[in-house]
């Protein structure tokens, strides 16, 4: 699995080497195949000024120091940008913050492929940048991804321009901002501490941060195209998580849930509406059963042939009370049965239901076809799982709460 490292970075480029050092020295190591620095125009200038990047830069030096020169990859710099492509110098205004939120959200979404694991470090940059990094990973990340922050001890080293990572040697470096009583620069050791009782050296600790991966709850098309943005993902997530009612429009042959809509074929809607009625009205699995309510089985479907037929007619003509025999190629033509068009079609339909093998096969195929249609239309696993017809041994039906199911267009359908 390919490892992708995304780091939020401000004007302290040491965050990059500290993060990479922590990842390469952990057990097992996380070796990035790609490193992305999410930043601003001013910060990128600091990278160049302090020689972070390039074959002779500090990051390349770190890989050589750790004996991993072949693992070095030159980081890709991605900027918070205005609509016209102009790069923002900093993240201080609402507009700049929104642009950075869009950037980090796009980065996580576009790199969250099946063969990749993302590690997001929120250690650098302004607090706003760190917040967006964590929020973006929660919104569009997956359980396999990681979120972290690096902590440097002693904390004085966080502002020391000459500290880039802990070393095996006991090197002492001057601190440009901290002075002794005689006005000389305070010095600190870069030696990696041997343990908790060793207080003289340096330590970089990576704190892994738990997050809630919400990507499985989001509609698939939110990740498509170049227009993905933080606010749009938030709006879509809120719409999905606030979804309450499963709305079934029998004449229109549509199912709506969480802002998504699926259109079924006539026979599929007849069966789906029958399952919805069984759930909503708590029909018993059989007339003698006291333990199972709201489910169907082949025998129960056979006993509901009249209702099934009426629902099927409803999807064709929009008025079940007319009882018109508008039957297409799914069933035998009414003309083959005597006794008038409507009664003939109904009789032909009941004959089909009396064939156990064909009935069970039809029900399996209906459930599979409905599932495919809902998944394809909703483009969201969580929403689809709530709406499909589920199986429970020999029984099948909806698991959606009965009180939240709304069915329209069946006022004329008879009840069992």
Q: Which residues sit in consecutive blocks of at least 5 with pLDDT less than 50?
A: 316-345
Mass-distribution shape: elongated
Radius of gyration: 31 Å
Distance between the termini: 55 Å
* Arithmetic mean pLDDT: 83
Tell me the major beta sheet.
Answer: 6 strands, mixed
Share of residues in helices = 25-40%
Please give the order of strands in the largest beta sheet. Answer: 3-2-1-4-5-8
How many β strands by DSSP? 14
Order of helices and strands: EHEHHEHEHEEEEHEEEHHHHHHEEE
Helix and strand composition category:
alpha/beta
Q: What fraction strand?
A: 15-25%
- Helical segment tally? 12
How does the SSE layout of this entry go?
Elements: E1 2-8, H1 14-25, E2 34-39, H2 41-49, H3 58-65, E3 76-79, H4 94-111, E4 116-121, H5 127-140, E5 146-153, E6 172-179, E7 185-189, E8 203-208, H6 230-241, E9 246-249, E10 254-257, E11 260-263, H7 266-280, H8 298-303, H9 305-317, H10 341-353, H11 356-378, H12 381-387, E12 390-392, E13 395-397, E14 405-408
Parallel strand pairs: 1-2, 1-4, 2-3, 4-5, 9-14
Antiparallel strand pairs: 5-8, 6-7, 9-10, 10-11, 12-13
Helix pairs in contact: 1-3, 4-5, 5-6, 7-9, 7-11, 11-12
């Amino acid at each position: 699995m390919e490892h992708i490292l995304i780091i939020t970075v401000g004007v302290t480029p040491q965050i990059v080497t500290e993060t990479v050092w922590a990842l390469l020295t952990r057990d097992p190591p996380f070796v990035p195949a790609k490193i992305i620095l999410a930043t601003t125009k001013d910060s990128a200038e600091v990278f160049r000024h302090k020689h972070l990047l390039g074959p002779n830069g500090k990051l390349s030096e770190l890989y050589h120091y750790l004996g991993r020169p072949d693992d070095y990859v030159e980081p890709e710099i991605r900027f918070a940008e205005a609509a016209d492509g102009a790069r923002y110098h900093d993240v201080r205004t609402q507009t700049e913050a929104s642009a950075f939120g869009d950037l980090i959200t796009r980065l996580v979404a576009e790199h969250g492929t099946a063969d990749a694991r993302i590690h997001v470090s929120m250690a650098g940059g302004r607090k706003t940048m760190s917040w967006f990094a964590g929020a973006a990973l929660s919104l569009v990340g997956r359980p396999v991804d990681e979120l972290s922050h690096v902590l440097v001890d002693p904390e004085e080293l966080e502002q020391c321009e000459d500290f880039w990572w802990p070393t095996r040697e006991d090197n002492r470096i001057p601190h440009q901002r901290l002075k002794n009583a005689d006005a000389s620069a305070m010095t600190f050791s870069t030696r990696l501490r041997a343990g908790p009782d060793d207080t003289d050296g340096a330590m970089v600790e990576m704190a892994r941060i738990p997050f809630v991966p919400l990507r499985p709850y989001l509609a698939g098309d939110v990740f498509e195209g170049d227009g993905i943005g933080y606010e749009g993902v938030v709006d879509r997530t809120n719409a999905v998580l606030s979804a309450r009612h499963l709305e079934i429009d029998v004449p229109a042959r549509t199912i709506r849930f969480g802002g998504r809509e699926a259109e079924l074929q006539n026979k599929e809607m007849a069966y789906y509406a029958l399952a919805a009625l069984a759930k909503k009205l708590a029909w018993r699995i059989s007339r003698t059963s006291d333990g199972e309510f709201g489910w169907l089985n082949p025998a129960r479907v056979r006993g509901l042939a009249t209702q099934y037929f009426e629902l099927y007619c409803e999807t064709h003509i929009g008025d079940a009370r007319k009882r018109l025999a508008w039957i297409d190629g799914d069933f035998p033509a009414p003309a083959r049965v005597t006794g008038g068009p409507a009664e003939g079609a109904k009789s032909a339909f009941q004959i089909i239901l009396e064939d156990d093998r064909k009935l069970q096969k039809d029900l399996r195929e209906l459930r599979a076809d409905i599932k495919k249609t809902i998944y394809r239309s909703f483009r969201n696993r969580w929403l689809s799982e709530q709406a499909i017809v589920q199986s429970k041994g020999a029984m099948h039906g909806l698991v959606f709460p009965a009180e939240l199911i709304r069915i329209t267009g069946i006022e004329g359908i008879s009840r069992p």
